[in-house]
Design a protein that fits this description.
Belongs to the cysteine synthase/cystathionine beta-synthase family. This is Cysteine synthase family protein. The protein has two domains: about 10-45 and about 165-330, Rossmann fold; about 45-150, Rossmann fold, CATH 3.40.50. The protein is built from eleven helices and ten strands. The chain has helices at about 50-60, 80-90, 105-110, 130-140, 155-165, 165-170, 190-200, 215-220, 260-275, 280-295, 320-325, and strands spanning about 20, 35-40, 70-75, 95-100, 115-120, 145-150, 180-185, 205-210, 255-260, 305-310. Bound molecules: 4'-deoxy-4'-aminopyridoxal-5'-phosphate. 4'-deoxy-4'-aminopyridoxal-5'-phosphate (PMP) binds near residues 184 and 310.
Length: about 350
């Protein structure tokens, strides 16, 4: 028999099929069984690889996107990285309009992945021609054969999770999942995953994690947009100051809000207890789990799946940096523990 070389054809074949990992120490005194879907195992280190690949491949199938065409999006975060990665392999130009608030590290990372980056002033309103929304729209109009991903208002963002994250969790839990807990930003992850799971079993509870300073929880409760809910917060990628059409509010049973400080400490605790080096919103999701458990959401026989969206390496100058934590005043809390380094 001829020996075959065992290699995947390119990095994109590694997107999805992320592991489900049991949480042990951090959930020790909590009722129920807890499993983390660790999205950092995607090749671009976040859940956004799934939507980048899916949306681009759908555009190819429908004939919108042809070789050499352009992908445009407004993000300096995970979606930008994933789009740049997929664009390289598939031979597209990737243009990202980002806010001037974005860290130099993030901009360098996107450039490293071959993206063309437009840095737009952060202080202007969304309808100002210099805002990253308007710049992206203009570039889209100027580039014949370009696709504007527009993840907050793109149903394909939801579908990507309906066709991948949902079935994976159903299969990995052998249908025994009782609760899904996921961060909500665009809402694509929670809405698409929940749609698949609820079709299989409508009794599965779907809980979204939201940030203090975001409108999502209040909108879910009242169906009204309350400007008073909005104020600045530190966690990136969680919550929103607008209502994304990619969020299916009807499928979500409940939103739980978490603070910047408690989420940061939970992210650090996940590394120390489970060896899981995951991002700030994973800490937020973990904090949400703790609060929900204290409120009696889970029973002894609950099988709770929590989604951890990205990798810790993206937060080295923030949550995993003691100076940053101290500057935020996060070391005032009782849970704080600064680990000293020994210099020899
Ligand atoms: N965590 C991080 C780090 C993210 O970048 C995002 C995306 N904004 C989310 C969570 C939320 O995922 P979704 O947009 O699918 O709701």
């Amino acid at each position: 028999m001829k020996e075959e070389i065992q290699a995947c054809n390119n990095i994109l074949e590694l997107i999805g099929n992320t592991p489900l990992i049991k949480l042990n120490k951090i959930t020790q005194n909590m009722k129920g069984n807890y499993f983390a879907k660790v999205e950092a195992f995607n090749p671009g280190h976040s859940t956004k690889d799934r939507i980048a690949l899916y949306i681009i491949e759908q555009a190819e199938k429908s004939g919108i996107l042809k070789p050499g065409d352009t992908i445009i999006e407004t993000t300096s975060g995970n979606t930008g990285f994933s789009l740049a990665m997929v664009s390289i392999i598939k031979g597209y130009e990737c243009i990202l309009a980002v806010s001037s608030k974005s860290s130099a590290d993030k901009i360098d990372m996107l450039k490293t992945m071959g993206a063309k980056v437009y840095v737009c002033p952060a202080h202007v309103s969304a309808d100002d021609p210099r805002s990253y929304y308007e710049v992206a729209k203009r570039l889209h109009n100027e580039h014949v054969g370009s696709v504007y991903i527009n993840q907050y208002f793109n149903e394909l963002n939801v579908d990507a999770h309906y066709y991948s994250t949902g079935p994976e969790i159903w299969q990995q839990t052998q249908g025994k999942i009782t609760h899904l807990v996921a961060c909500s930003g665009t809402g694509g992850t929670i809405s698409g995953t929940a749609r698949f799971l609820k079709e299989k079993n409508p009794n599965i509870r779907i809980i979204g994690i939201d940030a203090y300073g975001s409108v999502l929880q209040k909108y879910h409760q009242t169906h009204e947009f309350d400007q008073n809910e909005i104020y600045p917060y530190r966690i990136e990628g969680l919550g929103k100051n607008l209502i994304p059409s990619a969020t299916d509010f009807d499928i979500i049973d409940k939103f739980e809000k978490v603070t910047d400080e408690s989420s940061a400490h939970r992210a650090r605790e996940l590394a120390k207890t489970e060896g899981l080096f995951v991002g700030y919103t994973s800490g937020a999701a973990m904090q949400g789990l703790k609060q929900l458990e204290e409120d009696g959401e889970f029973a002894e026989d609950s099988n709770v799946v929590v989604i951890f969206p990205d990798h810790g390496s993206r937060y080295m100058s923030k949550v995993f940096n003691d100076k940053w934590m101290d500057e935020q005043g996060f070391f005032d809390s009782e849970t704080a523990e600064i680990q000293k380094v020994e210099y020899v």
